Structures are given as structure tokens and as C-alpha cells.
DNA sequence: CATAATTCCTCTAGTAACTACAGGTTCAAG
DNA sequence: CTTGAACCTGTAGTTACTAGAGGAATTATG
């Protein structure tokens, strides 16, 4: 199958397939005489793996590591689990950070009239004039 | 005060101050005869505003908008509130996405021995072999 | 079978928001 | 007066894509 079909089958766009190949995340595809890339079912399988790993938030580098582990039939599951746990910690940290932002914003927005008047606790707070902590 | 002092006073590094100036987020600083940037207390006030807005997750472009609103004493608080609410929705979407990743990973990691054995439900799942949904 | 439309190819450059040099001034202290 | 810290500019690298130019190959239609 050619790149367009592989893209449809894997859920990764043709442009991204070329990109992933260029940066070495996936190996160079077979080529027809005229230079068109050709993919097999096993390639699509790999591509789906990549897509899923990326969908779980693993970076390209981590995805490459996961791919290597996947191919290494003698790997220790501990290595995979360690990667997963590390990534989970990163996700937790990010979530905590975003939640803190959200909480602050919610508090501020709750005190802002949101009408034509110019006075606005949101701007006041960002500018350094802290809102009193109340209900 | 020079750039190093302004950096210390605002919490934005000297490099980032130059960067912010270059991209136009903050106006060009005054200069000494020899070309050193000079900042005043009001500049530091602005810088702190920027830092706080960025800390709440607003993009540079949004921060520029917030800055304009802050300076416009005739703004409507509704405009500020709208920005805050829109950003909150983005944060919520991101948090939801990260939580879904985390949930999946937690489920998978919970089923992985994490020892020397190679069999690993995490890789199996990423590869497309779905784990049965159980407790 | 000719032509038109589509798909493919490569390569460059742009995005966000920084960070890291390199190579050079200027300033403050000893 | 010389060292060393802090300043200056400008370029390039980072992550993970996305968009577009310009051109070749393939597929569909008349």
C-alpha cells in the first residue's frame, strides 16, 4: 500500500509519516521503482503503535524507546513499567499545574462583574493587587 | 536599574526580557549612552504583570491583549472576563485530556508485573491488543 | 490514447516560547 | 590598569508539527 493508504490505515497523516521517517522514529519505507513509499501490514501495525503511544502523551523520543522495548522480546516488563510510571508522574505534575491556574482564574472571574464597568479584579490581581481571600 | 536588576525584581530573566522586547510583548526599554537597557519601577510593574499572566497560562499573545486591557482605563470588565473564561475552558480541555492519558496508563501499569519477565500489558495495549476491562 | 485530476515526491520555512551559544562592549572593583 | 562580571547583538537549536512551492507519477475520464 502507498503512503495515503497507510495514512488512512494508521491514522497518521502522510505528511507526518514522512516526517517520522525523516527524524528516524520509523525506519525508511520500501520504495517502488518510481520512488513511491510502500507499506505493509506490519508497518501499519508499527504505525498504530506509534500513534497510540503519542496519544498517551509520550514524546517522540519516549515513543522510540517504547518501540525498541516492544521489539525486544527479551525486555523486562519492569523497564516498560518504569517508563509508564515516570510519564504518569509528569502528567500528574502538569495536571496539578493547570488545575492551580484554573482555580485561580475561577476565583478571580467569580469576583469580576463582567459588564461595561472597567474595574476588574482579574486585572487587579494580575497586576499584583491581591484579592482578599474570602468566599 | 539595569537589565539584571530588573530581572531580579520582576522574576523574568534578562534573556527573556530581551526576548520579550524583541517580539514586541514589552516596549523597548530606555537606554544609557552606551546602549545598556534601563528600567524604572513602572517597567518592573509591567514585567510582573506579564509574569503573572504567563504564570496563569496565558499565551504571549493573550498576555499582550491583557496588557492592553490593563492599560486601557476605559475597558469593559466583560472583555477581561471573557478572556479569562475562554482560557479556563482551554485549561479544562487540556486537563481532561491529560487525565484520560493518566487513567489509561494507571490501568495498564496496574496490570504489569514490572519484573524481569518480558510479558507486559502496557506494550500489548499500545500495540493494539486490548486489555479486558476488569477491576 | 490524450488530458485532467489526484497523489506522490523533496525541500524550505513557519509556528510557540524559549534556551544556548558566539563574539564583542562596558562597567565596577582591586 | 587589568581582570572579570554583566551587558550588547545575532544566530541557531529545541519539540512536534503544519503549510506551501514546485515537480513527477499515477489514475480516471472523455
Automatic annotation (TrEMBL), chains A, B:
InterPro entries, A to Z: CueR (IPR011789), DNA-bd_dom_put_sf (IPR009061), MerR-type_HTH_dom (IPR000551), MerR_fam (IPR047057), Tscrpt_reg_MerR_DNA-bd (IPR015358)
Task: Name the Pfam families for this protein.
Answer: MerR, MerR-DNA-bind
- Keyword annotations of the record: Coiled coil, Cytoplasm, DNA-binding, Transcription, Transcription regulation
Q: Where in the cell is it found?
A: Cytoplasm
Cellular compartments per GO CC: cytoplasm
> Record's PROSITE patterns?
HTH_MERR_1, HTH_MERR_2
Taking the record's annotation, the residue ranges forming a coiled coil are 81-108
Residues of the HTH merR-type domain: 1-69
Which CDD domains does this one have? HTH_CueR
The Gene Ontology biological process terms listed for this entry are: positive regulation of DNA-templated transcription
Gene Ontology MF annotations:
copper ion binding; DNA binding; DNA-binding transcription factor activity
Please give the superkingdom of this protein's source. Answer: Bacteria
Give the signal sequence positions.
none
Q: Per its record, how is this protein called by name? A: Cu(I)-responsive transcriptional regulator
Q: Origin organism of this chain?
A: Chelatococcus asaccharovorans
**Phylogenetic placement of the source organism:** Bacteria, Pseudomonadati, Pseudomonadota, Alphaproteobacteria, Hyphomicrobiales
Amino acid at each position: 500500500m502507498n503512503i495515503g493508504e497507510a495514512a488512512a490505515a494508521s491514522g497518521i497523516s502522510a505528511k507526518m509519516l514522512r516526517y517520522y521517517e525523516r527524524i528516524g522514529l520509523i525506519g525508511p519505507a520500501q520504495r517502488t521503482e518510481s520512488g513511491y513509499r510502500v507499506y505493509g501490514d506490519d508497518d501499519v501495525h508499527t504505525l498504530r503503535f506509534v500513534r497510540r503511544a503519542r496519544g498517551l502523551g509520550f514524546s517522540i523520543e519516549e515513543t522510540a524507546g517504547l518501540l525498541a522495548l516492544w521489539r525486544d522480546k527479551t525486555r523486562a516488563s519492569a523497564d516498560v513499567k518504569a517508563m509508564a510510571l515516570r510519564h504518569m508522574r509528569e502528567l500528574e505534575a502538569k495536571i496539578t499545574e493547570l488545575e492551580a491556574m484554573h482555580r485561580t482564574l475561577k476565583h478571580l472571574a467569580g469576583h469580576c462583574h463582567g459588564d461595561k464597568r472597567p474595574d476588574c479584579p482579574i486585572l487587579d490581581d494580575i497586576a499584583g493587587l491581591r484579592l482578599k481571600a474570602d468566599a
